[in-house]
Design the sequence.
């Protein structure tokens, strides 16, 4: 049994050098410049982020879901497992290498979730797809934001592209009536909660982590 960590791949991104390291068959870590972004051993909050909103769509015939970003694929796998066969899941990821890793060495973690026929993969900024939906005639039944910065990246910036007030207004318009916004973040964020209320969302908080970091999932309608 190989207990040594080994580098599987690296990629230069805006924030620095992104590394994928592996130990054994199913243990992975993704880091950027020595900062750990995600690990395969800590994924309860990511699983709940995908599972809970999509369970609420299971009785719909063909729900439409927008998910960003891809990460190790745990949120996507949980969403797919909860959704009906005719669902459509648009996945938006900034870094193409993440999809390559999810289809390659990390596919064992999610039973090749990215290759599920219900999945449509896009590369770029999820804010642009939300804007198009907000201005169009077809909204999403759920928008799931699994961005590694969390809501605190906004720092109460009203113009933040994902969590600022204007962005939340667009997101609400991009949802069908009764649609769900699900957001991962590190911990409760009073500023974000105030912005949610301010644009007309009602929300609840989930704390799926029993040990370790107390990551949190917001569900808003």
Sequence:
């Amino acid at each position: 049994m190989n207990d040594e960590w080994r580098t599987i791949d690296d990629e230069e991104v805006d924030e620095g050098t992104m590394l994928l390291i592996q130990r054994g068959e199913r243990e992975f870590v993704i880091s950027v410049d020595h900062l750990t972004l995600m690990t395969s051993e800590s994924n309860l909050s990511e699983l709940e982020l995908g599972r809970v909103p999509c369970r609420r769509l299971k009785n719909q015939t063909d729900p439409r879901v927008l998910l960003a970003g891809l990460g190790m694929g745990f949120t996507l796998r949980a969403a797919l497992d909860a959704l009906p066969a005719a669902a459509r899941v648009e996945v938006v990821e900034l870094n193409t290498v993440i999809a390559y890793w999810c289809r390659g060495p990390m596919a064992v973690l999610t039973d090749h979730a990215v290759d599920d026929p219900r999945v449509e993969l896009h590369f770029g900024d999820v804010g642009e797809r939300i804007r198009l939906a907000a201005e169009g005639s077809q909204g999403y039944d759920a928008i799931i934001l699994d961005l590694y910065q969390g809501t605190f990246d906004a720092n109460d910036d009203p113009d933040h592209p994902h969590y600022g007030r204007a962005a939340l207004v667009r997101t609400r318009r991009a949802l069908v009536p009764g649609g769900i916004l699900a957001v991962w973040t590190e911990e409760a964020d009073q500023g974000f909660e105030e912005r949610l209320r301010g644009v007309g969302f009602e929300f609840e908080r989930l704390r799926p982590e029993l040990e370790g970091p107390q990551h949190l999932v917001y569900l808003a309608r």
Observations:
- Residues 27 and 40 are 6 Å apart (CA to CA).
